[in-house]
Design brief:
This protein is mainly alpha-helical. It is built from three helices and no strands. Helix 1 packs parallel to helix 2 and helix 2 packs across helix 3.
């Protein structure tokens, strides 16, 4: 009996709590588990925030590339129009079709 009480006292001293029997040890473990859960939640929140940032960045990059590609294909279609290879009504159609084909 004395040995068990001494072990509990030593464990309480290591954990930095006043000896209050088994209940205080259980409470301490519950608090540690709660703190660990809070840290996991914080890490998950940061990961989700980073994923959202990366997705927005990729969407922006993709949109900019698509705009540049459409401008390039429009220029190509306009050059063909000036060379009278195609009618001016087909310029937009060819620009969009060319951009879609490249993608």
């Amino acid at each position: 009996m004395y040995f068990i009480i001494e072990v509990n006292n030593n464990m309480c001293k290591k954990l930095g709590i006043k000896h209050g029997g088994r209940k205080s040890l259980i409470d301490t473990r519950a608090q540690q588990a709660h703190k660990l859960q809070q840290k996991k939640t914080l890490i998950n929140t940061k990961v989700v925030s980073l994923n959202n940032f990366i997705m927005k960045l990729l969407e922006s990059f993709t949109a900019n590339v698509a705009k540049q590609l459409l401008l390039l294909c429009s220029s190509y279609a306009l050059v063909l129009s000036k060379l009278h290879c195609i009618s001016s009504f087909n310029v937009l159609y060819i620009a969009i079709y060319s951009a879609w084909f490249i993608i």
